[in-house]
Amino acid sequence: MKYAFPDNFWWGSASSALQTEGAREGETTWDYWFAREPNRFHNGVGPQQTSTFYQHWKTDIQLLKQLNHNSFRTSISWARLIPDGIGEVNPEAVDFYNQVIDELNEQGITPFMTLFHFDMPMAMQEIGGWENRDVVEAYARYAQICFELFGDRVLHWFTFNEPIVPVEGGYLYDFHYPNVVDFRRAATVAYHTVLAHAKAVQAYRAGHYAGEIGIVLNLTPSYPRSQNPADVKAAHIADLMFNRSFLDPVLRGEYPADLVALLKAYDQLPACKPEDSALIAEGKIDLLGVNYYQPRRVKCRDGAVNPQAPFMPEWFFDNYEMPGRKMNPYRGWEIYAPGIYDILVNLRDNYGNPRCFISENGMGVENEQRFIENGQINDQYRIEFISEHLSWLHKGISEGCNCLGYHMWTFIDNWSWCNAYKNRYGFIQLDLKTQQRTMKKSGEWFAATALNNRFEKE
Asked: pTM score > 0.90 for this model?
């Protein structure tokens, strides 16, 4: 089978400031947490040990060029640009981001820029983080400063990357700082994130910039175990909480009524102000980034809820392990390529077919050195993973879905939150000791696919 993609399709990859740049002047929640609990991080490797993009940005952009990228998404570090979150702008950070943006444009690689990719300045977290509306205002100011500094050359902006993740990690499931387990506080964080997003969109529109603004959401289709009404309802509630809690506000300008009713029934709604709904309505986006890694499979609960347990999403469903599912054993995630098609069809049929692109998709594998042949990692498994997902993406596009590109996570092996370098995702192998960069087999495959705007698959 031959799969050809539309003209001007975006081929590229994604990364983030905190995972690639290295040390910065302003402390983030990650720096703070690592200093206090290094045992929570794989092999005790913290966010200082990155792929040193801050030093090697010029040669790394040359590698992007070799990979035939025509676009590349990264983020600006709020803590690097404004170390205390609200004060003076750091001129060295402005110089750095100007150089990166200018070099990308010069090499014919369109910069896609994210404003917030999990890296809350610690000074902002100390006053409550996203629980505090003052932080919403501080973020809006930071966004406006970014637009003013770089908006003439960055034409694709994203307010947040995967905003549900800090909610889940920091306030529900204890895998991000501040390690709180409290649904009401989680709901407040999610709500204020949507307000912050809307304020940034508002500022962008007011500035009449030439480009467009959007958000990047990790969408995990919720599949019920069966068509039994109890299973279907369980999947619907999971979808409301993990997908539609952000998808509906940014595409429809309002929350799903049944989500609001559910949280109200359990007294978990965040504090709202009368003017909030008009602000949220102004936060409708131009472009949606979709991160897709795995599906969510659920069934109705088998047992009663412990009334003493904290209120959690799992009051309404159990996770379901589908027999025969294909797994990535290193990450513990199911590999299900048709999910990418299902997401696009849902957007087409239920959300007015918005302009979107796959902003992340990827496969993390442990100890890739065992696949070295003649000095190069032969990651055929990654080529198969990408081509399988691309074939389903192609099917969606051929059926009218408005998907404009595909970005892989990530271009170079980088530091990954609590997992550090346990699983490698890159097209480029990174030797941590020497910082040497070597292209993997998947990098060559992707470069050819991007150059030809097509690939063949048996």
From this structure: yes
Instruction: Give residue-wise pLDDT tens across range 54-86.
Output: 999 999 999 999 999 999 999 999 999 999 999
From the list 162, 254, 314, 456, the catalytic residue is: 162
Q: For residue 418, which amino acid is it?
A: C
Pair 199, 143: CB distance under 8 Å: yes
For the question of residue 368 being annotated catalytic, the response is no
Q: Which residue has the tokens 């092999």?
A: 43
Cβ-contact 358, 406 below 8 angstroms: yes
SS (H, E, C) 160-199: EECCHHHHHHHHCCCCCCCCCCCHHHHHHHHHHHHHHHHH
Catalytic residue among 103, 131, 168, 360: 360
* Total length of the chain: 458
* Measured torsion, CA atoms of residues 368, 373, 375, 381, in degrees rounded to the nearest 10: -40
Residue 37 known to be catalytic: no
pLDDT digit string (tens) for 326-335? 999 888 899 9
> Residue 24: its pLDDT value, please?
85
Those residues whose C-beta lies under 8 Å from the C-beta of residue 242, and which sit 6 or more positions away, are 164, 168, 220, 222, 296, 313
Question: Residues of the chain whose pLDDT is less than 70?
Answer: none
Q: Cα(first)–Cα(last) distance of the chain, in Å?
A: 6
Residue with tokens 């509906």: 248
